[in-house]
């Protein structure tokens, strides 16, 4: 219903439902028909209530139409041919039982209704020329072909934001219903937060553990990377298979769907991510400055969003099996570029300095480190006579981040978020556009065949 279709085809919508649910389902369908929509259903054993609810019924036996018309006119039609329906019988059950048990009844019914060409509707016989839905299929095919030739891009009746709001609401509802997954993620974030806090307990203002504090930033980065990169790699390929069917049926557009997919995990990520950050930030005794905490939290969440975007890109291109191998293979060099030059950062060459920034993790670790050590007063040196990294500027120099700007690196993370999402969108667009993908595959096959 997202795209507000004028005609709805339903295959056995009441099957498997109890009588109360069947009544509710039919009432909803009647409401839809009252909004200038046409609802067409196939039902094998309709109850009396279901049967009377339909304005138009069409019975088929052995591939031939035995009745076409209003539900109220079925009993008079059968009586006119000598088949009287008992008072206690449902009209639908009666005609089904008659055509299946009395073989000689099929031909009179088919002949009287002219195999569906006549429509016994509203107590009068309508010919196909009087009823638009009974026109010849060849005429409808010609009109449809002409329409597609004049306008190949058929617009959706509903707007982009209407489709987005409905799809996003559905996805949020699905997340809420999966309470087990929410509890698992909450346990994971809380446990990791406590473990990280205990491993790096009380090092935030201690100059003797400045390097360990930098390692804490690296661990936070790795946590957000691997927590959010694998979920879409494993889960999104299954959604792509469902998307192919729904998009092929033109239930909604790809753009509102992809925007909803991109934003659906953000609320839960903010809640769980902030829980992890608060626990570790307090246990590690980081500087109690609101601006630093906000900068640190913002950079961490952006790393998680970028990681999820990379996972979505891989999930859009690969199957679950291939994606499970591709994701670690892609992440490994990105981690290497992230930690390259630690200890000799001032000697990194220009070319290598450009290469390492092809990793969004490098951009993320610089933002996290700058939020903790940037523009900071000398740390406390209590455990040793002399602390080399008492001045945080020395650490930033040795890890190659002395002149780095927090703002520019946050903008870089936002750029990577947009880049990964764009690649994922284009990959989905390619997979859903069978004609384009088929042409590209044929050209590639010709090239290799020629060689």
From TrEMBL:
Residues 162-373 form the ABC-2 type transporter transmembrane domain. This is ABC-2 type transporter transmembrane domain-containing protein. GO terms for molecular function: ABC-type transporter activity. It is found in: Membrane. Keywords: Membrane, Transmembrane, Transmembrane helix, Transport. It comes from Ignelater luminosus. The keyword Oxidoreductase does not apply. InterPro entries: ABC2_TM, ABCG_transporters, P-loop_NTPase. Signal peptide: none annotated. Pfam families: ABC2_membrane. It comes from the Eukaryota. SUPFAM superfamilies: P-loop containing nucleoside triphosphate hydrolases. One of its GO terms (cellular component) is plasma membrane. Gene3D superfamilies: P-loop containing nucleotide triphosphate hydrolases (3.40.50.300).
